[in-house]
């Protein structure tokens, strides 16, 4: 995960290069180190170096790393001719490289040749069944084709091998939420909380899913996780604060609209943070209908 300091440093370098102050190579190295895919900038700055023979030769062995980086950025930007040229240069230098073979399969994928790409990935996995990138590319192919069931299948197979991949668990959870398969999504968020208990985002997402599932036990547990989100975020997460109000109302029969007593409870929840005043002003105009897929699916998918 990119820190604010690292992002600020990257933005500073980007502005410097855009304004003609140099530092294109430093920007590309930092983007690669942070695994940030600012593809348009990487393509622009990378080509400015590769097209200059003097700059290119000064890189030494890193020249080939840049070719790979630009090839991926070009595929992101659908500049497939550029990607093909970069991959061809790498193929000449490393004719037996599996890494280059992976790029060739990615190019087939970018062209929409799904069957050829799938065959290429399968062949590469026979040689190295633990290649994480290729496993993830198969998930991407399934999603690109709209085959969500296949994407779920590939993700589950991937997680059987790489159980510590937090991004994969989160991806699977979000797919389940989009399909309203909330019990399965809850399991994914439980895995994330077990492995990264101090990340408030996972506590919040888990609470949202439990609220959506409904039932007294789920609602009580959701309240606990909204509370832990508030603790982990220093009381500054409006979404979690309002989640406490939602759960409190849903726990009461015939909740209807937020009457005076319930508003008082919400006021107690929000009063610790003066930044929440604008939220409190909206409460009298809101109606709570308890946990339902239509309401809470919108809550889950709203910006955090």
Automatic annotation (TrEMBL):
Residues 100-209 form the EMC2 TPR-like domain. Its main location: endoplasmic reticulum. It is found in: Endoplasmic reticulum membrane. It comes from the Eukaryota. Keywords: Endoplasmic reticulum, Membrane, Repeat, TPR repeat. GO terms for cellular component: EMC complex. The keyword Repeat applies. It is a peripheral membrane protein. Pfam families: TPR_EMC2 (PF22890). Belongs to the EMC2 family. Component of the ER membrane protein complex (EMC). PANTHER family: TETRATRICOPEPTIDE REPEAT PROTEIN. Part of the endoplasmic reticulum membrane protein complex (EMC) that enables the energy-independent insertion into endoplasmic reticulum membranes of newly synthesized membrane proteins. This is ER membrane protein complex subunit 2. The lineage of its organism: Eukaryota, Viridiplantae, Streptophyta, Embryophyta, Tracheophyta.
